[in-house]
């Protein structure tokens, strides 16, 4: 296998912009506000902060340490630690393949809705417009039977932009695009929030979000929700931060970088919460109902509730454009990081150069995305795949990773020493306790709690036959693919492995 010079970030700021761009995604805007509201309002910020300090930041630092130490993608980095551990890396690559294929279509929806906002094309019934007129969703979940041109073309445009950014490389493509997109995203969202808090009813919305219910802190599910939100919002657990850190210089400050990225991500989530609930407060007042009756999250918030608000508010077209443009920008920066994991792994495994890897491997992900999701079956398939790959892909892979590193191989002290070599803030015993005990226990409980819910009731009310292949099959398939790729023999051992870098 040929050895290529490892690309590097142009600056620490460039790396931080890319890391923040990866972390700030769709979930920050449409998941955090609803999670906070449902789990104690302002009181939720306490378990949220505890989760950030005991799970999010420690795991982020660990992934930075693995990436910079071995300067490889997850499969090769984990293989250099222990050959069987490469299964975890390839499992994460397969997870990224699945996520990238459906994540791109949500970005495409956001692009179309940015245009729809000016004419308020969804009319008086945003829900029917979204599912029937725009997506042409089938009445029953199943295999695709027809393509939807209104989704296909913007999705193709999204993939061309993402692949072009990746083709330009780490420094000229990923770094520079994030240096443009992240400031633009912040400007857009600040303007959006300023407009939202000046709406009639905004105060009631913010009061609903931030009024603390301290009694909720005695409920274990609230703490699980806080850890889940931190975990899924920081881009940890599926190889992104290992990959991004592999392009760092040898003297980079890992702990400081993790603190900046982690708190920047959380600050944006709180900003998103203010914007979303100020807007929902306006909607509740306009319709003469309580704020709780209009609260939703995910696709329902973005493409059904918000269009209804935009139709009623002054200057709604501009507000809608800013909101959906923000969704699209946040989605693209995250999508770039997800696909980069796949490309980097293939490059490290085969010695393939960047351009063939981007247009060949990245193009394959794009083709799968274009075949499956701009169809009448796309919405149900996306919903099921997203739920199962998050719960039984990302979270489970992270749990296995921590158990292997902390309990089986006992490598946490070595990675702590590696991070401390160049970091202004040194790690202590708390870091090893969090990664070796706290985070695995929380992730394990999340698995148990989630499985219990699956067996009580089919997710989304979907038929068991559909979930068997579009849910469990996709999550299980990612693991199987990871194992099979890891079993393929290496023709030439990676140079770092031959030299036994430790």
From TrEMBL:
<dbReference type="InterPro" id="IPR000175">
    <property type="entry name" value="Na/ntran_symport"/>
</dbReference>
<feature type="transmembrane region" description="Helical">
    <location>
        <begin position="44"/>
        <end position="66"/>
    </location>
</feature>
<feature type="transmembrane region" description="Helical">
    <location>
        <begin position="429"/>
        <end position="448"/>
    </location>
</feature>
<dbReference type="Pfam" id="PF00209">
    <property type="entry name" value="SNF"/>
</dbReference>
<keyword id="KW-0813">Transport</keyword>
<feature type="transmembrane region" description="Helical">
    <location>
        <begin position="12"/>
        <end position="32"/>
    </location>
</feature>
<feature type="transmembrane region" description="Helical">
    <location>
        <begin position="321"/>
        <end position="346"/>
    </location>
</feature>
<feature type="transmembrane region" description="Helical">
    <location>
        <begin position="259"/>
        <end position="284"/>
    </location>
</feature>
<dbReference type="InterPro" id="IPR037272">
    <property type="entry name" value="SNS_sf"/>
</dbReference>
<keyword id="KW-0812">Transmembrane</keyword>
<feature type="transmembrane region" description="Helical">
    <location>
        <begin position="358"/>
        <end position="382"/>
    </location>
</feature>
<keyword id="KW-0472">Membrane</keyword>
<feature type="transmembrane region" description="Helical">
    <location>
        <begin position="388"/>
        <end position="409"/>
    </location>
</feature>
<feature type="transmembrane region" description="Helical">
    <location>
        <begin position="180"/>
        <end position="202"/>
    </location>
</feature>
<feature type="transmembrane region" description="Helical">
    <location>
        <begin position="468"/>
        <end position="488"/>
    </location>
</feature>
<feature type="transmembrane region" description="Helical">
    <location>
        <begin position="147"/>
        <end position="168"/>
    </location>
</feature>
<feature type="transmembrane region" description="Helical">
    <location>
        <begin position="222"/>
        <end position="247"/>
    </location>
</feature>
<feature type="transmembrane region" description="Helical">
    <location>
        <begin position="87"/>
        <end position="111"/>
    </location>
</feature>
<keyword id="KW-1133">Transmembrane helix</keyword>
<protein>
    <submittedName>
        <fullName>Sodium-dependent transporter</fullName>
    </submittedName>
</protein>
């Amino acid at each position: 296998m040929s050895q290529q010079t490892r690309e590097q970030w142009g600056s620490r700021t460039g790396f931080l912009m890319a890391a923040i761009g990866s972390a700030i995604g769709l979930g920050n805007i449409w998941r955090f506000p609803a999670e906070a509201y449902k789990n104690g309002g302002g009181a939720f910020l306490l378990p949220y902060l505890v989760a950030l300090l005991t799970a999010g930041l420690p795991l982020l630092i660990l992934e930075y340490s693995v990436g910079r130490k071995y300067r490889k993608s997850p499969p090769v980095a984990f293989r250099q630690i222990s050959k069987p551990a490469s299964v975890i890396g390839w499992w994460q690559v397969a997870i990224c393949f699945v996520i990238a294929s459906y994540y791109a279509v949500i970005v495409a929806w956001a692009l179309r809705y940015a245009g729809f906002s000016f004419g308020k094309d969804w009319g008086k019934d945003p829900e029917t417009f979204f599912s029937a007129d725009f997506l042409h969703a089938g009445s029953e979940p199943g295999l695709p039977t027809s393509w939807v041109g209104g989704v296909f073309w913007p999705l193709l445009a999204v993939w061309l932009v993402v692949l072009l950014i990746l083709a330009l490389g780490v420094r000229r493509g990923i770094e520079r695009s994030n240096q443009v997109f992240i400031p633009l995203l912040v400007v857009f969202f600040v303007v959006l929030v300023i407009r939202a808090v000046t709406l009639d009813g905004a105060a009631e919305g913010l009061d609903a979000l931030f009024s603390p219910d301290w009694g909720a802190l005695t409920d274990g599910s609230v703490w699980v929700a806080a850890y889940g939100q931190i975990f899924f919002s920081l881009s940890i657990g599926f190889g992104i931060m290992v990959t991004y850190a592999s392009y760092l210089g040898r003297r980079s400050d890992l702990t400081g970088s993790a603190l900046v990225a982690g708190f920047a991500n959380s600050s944006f989530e709180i900003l998103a919460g203010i914007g979303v609930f100020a807007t929902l407060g306006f909607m509740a007042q306009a319709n003469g109902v309580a704020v709780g009756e209009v609260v939703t999250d995910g696709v329902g918030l973005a493409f059904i509730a918000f269009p209804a608000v935009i139709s009623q508010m002054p200057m709604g077209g501009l507000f809608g454009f800013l909101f959906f443009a923000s969704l699209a920008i946040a989605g693209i920066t995250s999508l770039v990081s997800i696909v980069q994991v796949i490309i980097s792994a293939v490059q490290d495994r085969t010695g393939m150069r960047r351009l063939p890897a981007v247009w060949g491997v990245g193009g394959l992900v794009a083709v799968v995305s274009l075949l499956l999701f701009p169809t009448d079956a796309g919405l149900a398939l996306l919903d099921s795949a997203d739920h199962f790959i998050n719960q039984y892909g990302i979270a489970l892979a992270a749990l296995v990773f921590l158990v292997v590193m902390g309990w089986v191989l006992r490598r946490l002290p070595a990675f702590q020493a590696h991070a401390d070599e160049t970091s202004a803030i040194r790690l202590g015993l708390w870091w090893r306790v969090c990664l070796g005990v706290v985070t695995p226990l929380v992730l394990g409980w999340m698995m148990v709690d989630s499985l219990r819910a699956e067996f009580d009731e089919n997710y989304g009310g979907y038929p068991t036959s559909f979930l068997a292949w579009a849910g469990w099959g996709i999550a299980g398939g990612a693991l199987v693919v990871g194992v099979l790729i890891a079993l393929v023999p290496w023709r030439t051992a990676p140079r770092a492995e031959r030299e036994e870098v430790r």
